[in-house]
Amino acid sequence: MFDMLGLKIALRVKSPLYTTIRTATKRTSGTSASSSNSAGRRLGPKKSENEFVKPGQIIWRQRGTKFYPGENCGIGRDHTIFALEPGYVRFYRDPFHAKRKFIGVALKQEYRLPTPHFEPRRRRFGYTLITDDKSAKFEEDFLTRKETKETKSRKIEEEKLLNDLEIRLSNYKEFCKSVDLELNHEQACRLDSIYQYMQGGKSYTESAEIVNSILLNDLEIDLNAARIQSAEYQDAVNQLSKDIETVDSKVCFGNNLKLVLVTEVSEDAKMNAISELDKLTKDLEYTPPSVVSQINTIIRNCAAFSSKDAAHLKRKYVKFLKPVPITAENKKEFEEKSAKKEGEIKLVHIRDDFQRYFIPKGARLIFDL
């Protein structure tokens, strides 16, 4: 206790050695021999039939589910039943769940529960406009803790997506500028839509057709909704066709999802890459790691290869070492290699028989039967 300027100030310091943890449920403690009993949890009804409740108010505390949450009610982790809407408490049974007892909240005093099974649930309408700015701001900002957490994470995710979109649009414009093509915002957004469809596994041609049809349909919807006139619609269609022809004649997305020149996805580019792979792997019994990385680079940098082509080429040009069966002729050779730690000899069970194999270092365990 300190006395400063005639005022007494008490400083409360938390002990670092003793802290308490509050939990939502009762924690067990003691031993099985302990005969002490805990205090009652004050279970039972907190609101009675036809009593008015506000959202969040507890109606019934229980252990287990003696009552189940009905219309406009929720249940907590400790089986507490609480109101989700303002209204009047109802205890009732549902003929579709004969063995269960329910607690619900009727929106008006004259409503009875349960609502007939095949009828829609009643919803609350007739909200009045809040004219007071301070009260309106409070209602707008009021969220539960769970909703606040979800809103924050959603906002962060949206900001990240917008930031990524701006980066992609900027990259499209810079690349097109390097090939003497000026992209406007609409053209860049069209390219990004094509990119999104290609990420889903579609080819460039399919993605472009889908995006073009969506853009045309949007214009037709605007025309039918009388947002634009017929002359404006025709001008917009002509401009869209012109933009598509201008952009697609110079650039496109390769199958590696990179924006490239149209000439880079031709058959000539594909054949040149295949000839490079042939030269690189000529007279090789197996492909060492350094050559594997070069093969992957050639396939990845060639925009003309589809994902299916890339997988086929990797299987064709990347050759791994395989286990070799040991015979009387090669036994001595492989024993020497095993002694030099170039591999190991293993007894392998194949087709109800045991066979000795020499497995070189880095070999795939694929056996020729």
UniProtKB/TrEMBL annotation:
Residues 131-344 form the Large ribosomal subunit protein bL27m C-terminal domain. The keyword Amino-acid biosynthesis does not apply. This is Large ribosomal subunit protein bL27m. Belongs to the bacterial ribosomal protein bL27 family. PANTHER family: LARGE RIBOSOMAL SUBUNIT PROTEIN BL27M, RIBOSOMAL PROTEIN L27. NCBIfam families: L27. GO terms for cellular component: mitochondrial large ribosomal subunit. InterPro entries: Ribosomal_bL27, Ribosomal_bL27_CS, Ribosomal_bL27m_C. Residues 25-42 have a biased composition (Low complexity). Transmembrane segments: none annotated. Its main location: mitochondrion. Keywords: Coiled coil, Mitochondrion, Ribonucleoprotein, Ribosomal protein, Transit peptide. It holds the Pfam family Ribosomal_L27_C. One of its GO terms (biological process) is translation. It is found in: Mitochondrion. The keyword Manganese does not apply. It comes from Starmerella bacillaris (Yeast). GO terms for molecular function: structural constituent of ribosome. Residues 216-243 form a coiled coil. SUPFAM superfamilies: Ribosomal L27 protein-like. Residues 25-48 are annotated as: Disordered.
